[in-house]
Amino acid sequence: MRAATVLGLAALLLYGPAGADYSQREDVLAYMDALVSEHGFSKPQLAAIFKDAQHQPRIVEAISRPKERTLKWYEYRRIFLQEPRIEQGAAFWRENEAALEAAQASFRVAPEYVVAIIGVETRFGRIMGSYRVLDALSTLAFDYPPRADFFRNELTEFLLLVREEGRAVGEFKGSYAGAMGYGQFIPSSYRHYAVDFDGDGARDIWGNTTDAIGSVANYFAEHGWRSTGTVVTPAKVLQPDLVAAVVNQGLALSETVGRLRELGVEVSGVPAAAKAALLRMELENGLEYWVALHNFHVITRYNRSRMYALAVHQLSQAIKARRNALAAAVPQAGSAVASFDFGVKAPVRP
């Protein structure tokens, strides 16, 4: 029996018939009561919202079979390190250079990583998702038991942001997991890290690339991005058996570069005291090793996957190289930052 079918039966047994009017389900009624009590929502207004919410079976199926779990590193990398995406990244950088330079000045985040995140997440705004966020989060909050608590929290965050932004609940579109805009922010990330970077009074991460760029940069800054230092560096492992206990052990930086060197890992240009993690990635014909450092860990706070973070890094470097090659071929007239007064004046970060 397919996993999605099993989960669908579990949802039916635990919560009632999928697709039923959410506003009449006991679990949703209890949830609405909690929203009224804890956040001061109107019960009739919530009832109208959940009466409009639509169960989406395709969402449960999609989240039950995430593609990344089945891919090797070389397959995963191939998706993102393609010529069209690199070219589109260089074009996005060129078209949004003023915003990217302003974000670097405000948040001390290298522009190539902001560009790469947007490239990996939505192909620079080309694929931002077409599900109503209300439908996606209601489906996952009430009909996907494995992560119901997480998605109920995100549904609450979504309803709060709708109220804060003063917009209609049905306006918000996103991915099957409720992620939104150029940078695919889930509602809690939107509420905490999205910024009105051009000062027009709205945090628009769907149609305003300036706000989207500032928001991604702010997310990285708030999670501790350092303006200097290596993100990840290739390594040579002399005796694989000696590092078996430390390789690919979660996402935390639980080792130091010095300790890895003691285990026979050859890595250059990084202080021995630096916190680190050793990565082993599968190629078509062998393995490769990398030493992940602080900013690599910051990228994993965006998406908790070592393959994701390494793909972002490699795409960032490919886009930066392409952008520099194009810039060298065409003389530049100077920075465009001085001609635009960005609204956010973030504190200077180390």
CATH architecture of the domain at 3-65 and 129-179: Orthogonal Bundle
Dominant shape: globular
The Rg value, from CA coordinates, equals 22 Å
Largest sheet: 5 strands, antiparallel
Classify the beta-strand content into a percent band. 5-15%
> Briefly, what CATH class of the domain at 3-65 and 129-179?
Mainly Alpha
Oligomerization state: single chain
Parts with pLDDT < 50 across at least 5 consecutive residues: 1-17, 335-350
Tag the structure with descriptive keywords.
350 residues; alpha+beta; Helicase, Ruva Protein, domain 3; five-stranded antiparallel sheet; two-stranded antiparallel sheet; 15 helices; 7 strands; 51% helix; globular; disordered N terminus; disordered C terminus
Describe this structure in words.
The protein is of the alpha+beta class and 350 residues long. It has a domain at 3-65 and 129-179: Bacterial muramidase (Helicase, Ruva Protein, domain 3). It is 51% helix and 9% strand. The chain has helices at 3-15, 26-39, 43-52, 57-64, 73-80, 83-95, 97-107, 111-122, 133-143, 148-165, 187-193, 209-222, 257-262, 294-302, 306-329, and strands at residues 131-132, 173-174, 232-237, 255-256, 265-266, 275-283, 286-292. The strands form 2 sheets. The protein has a 5-stranded antiparallel β-sheet. A hairpin with a 2-residue loop joins strand 6 (275-283) and strand 7. It is globular. The protein starts with a helix and ends in a 21-residue tail after the last helix. Residues 1-17 and 335-350 have low confidence and may be disordered.
